[in-house]
Amino acid sequence: MTAAAPPVPPGACAPTAAPAATALTLTPVSKVLKLCLHALLLGLLALAAGRAVADSAPRAGWVVAACVLLAAVYAAGVRAPAVHGSPRAGAVWLAGLGASWAGLLLISPDGLWIAFPLYFLELHLLRLRWGVAAVAVTACAAIGGFLAHSSAATPGAFLGPLLGGAVAVATVLGYQALYRESERRRELIEELITTRADLAAAERGAGILAERERLAREIHDTLAQGLSSIQLLLRAAERALPEGAPALPHIAQAREAAQDNLAEARRFVRALTPPDLEHGSLAAALERLCAGMPGPRVRFSLSGRPRVLPTPYEVALLRIAQSALANVVRHARAGRAEITLTFMDASVTLDIVDDGHGFDPSSAASGSGDGGFGLPAMRSRAETLGGLFTVESAPGQGTAVAVTLPLPLEHLEHTDPVEAP
Question: Which strand (E) or helix (H) includes residue 372?
Fold first, then answer.
């Protein structure tokens, strides 16, 4: 049975929510409730027919026939897919049940017992407001039927059907509330599982990127710098030796080998560059970052003559820009922000300015505020490369973050300017 299921959640009670009812009827609790409803209605019909036959009522045959007719209409609706799939068909089936029950009620006072299972059917197949109205009409019909067969009106004749209807409505509303809570918990669990999977994937990705950055930094700071120093020393030795000295060819070969290995080390560093820097310069990566940033309008500007930076410098500046813009989006409530990358003769500067509500940098630095790890991490990146990191802000006056990195001497001697993006 699907149409005559017990009370279900609000979505299933609505005529447009048949699929929700289908999913619910697959649960063990739903199946038990359906079986109980079947047993209740058929048992009451059997009781009414049995009492009429046992008491030799004048219209016992008609009572039995009415009970059989009502049972047949009920069974037909239970087995008809249209009753479940179409709200109109469900309403027609309820009307047929009501007409059959009214016929039984006219010839037997025992017919009023059928009102209780009818309450649940009406609340299940109709929208809540129409279901409650149908319950009220059914209770009034049950009271009228009892009064028609009884010469004395008693309080029980009114209270019984009304209390039965109230219990049915309260049961349905309670079941719906429990189902809604169960659905909210199920959705929360699914969301938590999805979030945990996303977090694990993000952590794996972050770990991979961090390891790539570490390897690039180690290669640059040790192997590449050592080879560059060796090359400078060999060049100095070459200049110190007199022309035609026997060691000059060997020094030249050693310098060339150091140069080749330095180029190879730099290729390794470039291969370990983060994906954001793989397809262009730092300026291009920052411009893409600004264009794809949600929330405030972010503008990128470039000052000075661009040049190729060491990979650790590009990585540090890009990560600082990403972290600063993330703070702007999450905390600053800014309308606009601006990133400026400035190339100078011996240094490079990155400025991130926003017009948000600002904060007290001293409280953030001391840990008394609600600032997270962002500012200390940015400062650590800058200071690791010998740079200077500053934050200027005040409540209601926006925030300015600036980082200046001095370029190594050997890099200045062996790099050429690049075109701006």
Answer: none
Give me the residue label for tokens 């953030």.
364
Strand order in the sheet with 336-343: 297-303, 336-343, 347-354, 399-406, 388-393
Tokens linked to 213: 């950055």
CB 341 within 8 A of CB 305: no
Among residues 383, 279, 273, 373, the alpha carbon closest in space to that of 323 is found at 373
Question: Interior CA angle at 48 toward 43 and 53, to 5°?
Answer: 120
Q: How far apart are CA 277 and CA 310, in angstroms?
A: 12
Contacts with 418 (C-beta within 8 Å, 6 or more apart), sequence order = 281, 306, 307, 308
CB contact at 8 A, 309 and 407: yes
193-250: pLDDT as tens digits: 888 887 777 677 667 767 777 777 677 667 777 887 888 888 888 888 888 888 888 8
Using an 8 Å Cβ cutoff, are 20 and 12 in contact?
yes
Whole-angstrom distance between the N-terminal and C-terminal Cα of the chain?
A: 68
Q: Provide the greatest CA pair distance for the chain.
A: 140
Tokens 């030795």 sit at which residue? 237
Pairing of strands 336-343, 388-393: unpaired
SS3 of residue 354 by DSSP: strand
| Strand 399-406 versus strand 347-354 pairing type | antiparallel
Query: From CA 10, how far away is CA 173, in angstroms rounded?
Result: 9
Q: Model confidence at 278, in pLDDT bands (50, 70, 90)?
A: low
Residue 156 parent element (H or E)? helix 155-218
The pTM assigned to this predicted structure is 0.40
- Measure the CA–CA gap between 39 and 380, rounded to whole angstroms: 74
pLDDT tens by residue, 312-338: 788 889 889 988 888 888 777 888 899
Give the C-alpha separation, 107 to 149, whole Å. Answer: 9
CA neighbor of 317 nearest in space, from 421, 178, 213, 222: 213
C-beta separation of 263 from 250 below 8 A: no
